[in-house]
Every structure is written in structure tokens, then in C-alpha cells.
Design brief:
Layout (H helix, E strand, L loop, with lengths): L12 H11 L13 H20 L12 H9 L3 H45 L18 H18 L2 E5 L8 H20 L5 E5 L6 H9 L11 E2 L4 H4 L5 E4 L15 E5 L10 H9 L2 E3 L7 E3 L7 H14 L2 H4 L8 E3 H31 L3
Parallel strand pairs: 1-2, 1-5, 2-3, 4-5, 4-6
Antiparallel strand pairs: 7-8
Helix pairs in contact: 1-2, 6-7, 6-10
Amino acid sequence: MVKKQSKNHHPCSTECQQLAEQRTDGKESFNSGTTNTIDLEKRRKVLELEIEVMRQEGRKVPSVSSIKPDQWEHLLSLTSRNQRRHYYLYLWNVEMVRLGQKIKKERKQEEVAKRREELLKANAENDHIVYGLFHNTMFLRIYDSTMDHFHNNRLVQAMQFGVNLVIDCSYDDYMNDKEMRNTAKQLMLCFALNRSHTEPFNVHHCNANFGKTTMKQLEKHLVQLHQPEFPFNITERSYMDLFPKERLVYLTPHCKNDLTEFNPDDIYIIGAMVDKSSQEPVSLGKAKKQGLRMARLPLDSYFQFKSGKSLTIDQMLAIMLELKMSNDFGKAFQYVPRRKVTTLDEAAAKEQEMREAAKFKFNFKRTNDKRNSKKPR
């Protein structure tokens, strides 16, 4: 007798199982403090099988070979199938972007090679002097490494003579994995923004926890982070141990004290936290507990907010850089995203439109009432 398949049995499950077993041969295992390595390997095989089945069903999932070790580590930590599906879709989008970039790069290389051949052929047939880069020219090419040295030297000067600013990296316990990864991206944007400014801050990243996702992602993208010659101040120590308490000012949107002007003698603290899932005043509580002065940006004096008043870390740094240069809040607030705010002039114009609409509605109703009263009964 032929044994019937169950309803939940997928027709390609056997084939996928064989593929999964073949792919797992020789692959590295992931160490975990709480889970056995063998259990992780078994779970990884199950996930590889799940990916293969979903791929054959036509779903948007990445190829197993494209998943990196750190992505596998995050994938193994997900508990629900819905979370995995969302992460599969994200990895598929990343894979498609990389594939598109690869195709674009290959086409560009072909165009460059073709153009080079045409130029070499034209130069061979031309007896005159050729003007341009690498030929007869008074200008030298400026390499990217030269620009890096120039910007890094500017940061070194800021470390010696610049105004101090602190980024507090102690909020990992209040963020999920996605928010911590976003925080790491914003910290990299802060580094690039500060480095390219004409008068950068001497930024200190304090309370760094290198065992958490934020610092792991930062180390991944800034590979020279711990090199002594790299101009990036990062420490596990608290800013309370590095600077006098009376000079510290914690910037938090939850306090009631507005910042009226930029004081170069003060050391301002920006909290490195992405709080999309929670809007609790964590920074306010921390500053109160440590007995620090607090201030918030006077955003309400310039804007009416359509949504939340929270700004990203790099937006806060851009505002502080402009305040240090000009001490003009009007100029500094150009870095506030326009999608979040309505200016006072726009709000006044909108209020006037609403008044006119209400007046028209009242007059229209009054006219109708008069007409109805004149009709014979």
C-alpha cells in the first residue's frame, strides 16, 4: 500500500531537505552564551529549509549563500515566523540592490574600457599635445585618501583646541535590535558631518558598551575605530568622570528649560537613542538623577509640529554645529525636517483660511434661513 501524504506536507520538502543538508556541510557555527552550538546548527538547517520552500513558492526571500554570518545570528534570534518573513523580505531587498549595483558597475566598467580604447586610438593618431588629466596639465589629481587625511587633520585640531561635545551611548537597554542598528548608522552620519564641517566639535562618545549591537555595528562599519591614529573619541567611561559636573548640560526635549544661546564654555550632551517604540523621558530622568543642568531647543518658538518633536542624532549635531558658528537659532533650525513642522506664518495663513471658510458657511446658512422664512405656507 502507498502511504498517503499529510495535508501539510509540501511536495518539494524532501528535495529541499536534501539541499539544506548539502548546504550545511562545512558551514561555520554560531556561539551563544545560552544556547548549545548543536541546537543552533539544527535550527539553522530548519531555517535554510524554510527559505528554500518559500523560494519555490515564489516568495521574496534571499538566497542562502547571500546571508552573512551576522545576519544569520540575528535570524536565529527571531522567535516568530512573522518576524522572520519580514527579515527575509528585507534581506531580499538588500540582495536585489546589490545585484543591481553589480550590474551597473559592470556596465560602467565596459563603458570606461571602451572610452579608454577610443582615447588611446585618438591620441595615437594625433600629433599635437594632449591637454587634460594625466597629460599636459598644471593641475594634479586629488585622491580620496588625500581628502581623508585633510578632514582627519581637521578633527585632530578640534581634539586639541575645539569645543567639547558628548554623545551619551548608554541607552542600548531601552532599544530593540533594529533601533540599535539605526543608532549606529546615525553615529556614523554624525562622524561624517562633524568631520566635513569647517569648525568641528571635539566629540566624545561616552558610556559605550562594546557587547551591544550599537557598538558592534559601529565597529563593523568603522574598521579603524580602535586604531590610535584614528580621530574618534570613544570610551566606556562616563562623562561624569571626564568633565566637571558644573559644565555639563544635558539636551533633552522633555525638560521645560529652553536653550537661549550657545555657550562655548558649556559641554552639551546628546543622547544616542532611537525611541520609535517608546517615548519615555529616559534622558530627563537620567539627567535629574545625576544632578545635571538640562535644556531643550526652543522649537516651539519657531515651528508648530505636525508630528513628534524628536530629532535624529545627526540632526541634533548639525543644529549644534550651526549654533556654534552663528549662535542663530533661525539658521540652525534649517536642519529640522520640513515634513515634521509648520512655520508660524504658514500656521497663521491656515488659520485665516479656516476663519474665512467658517464665515462663508455662516453667511450661506443665514441666507438659506431667510429664503425658507419667506416661502408661503
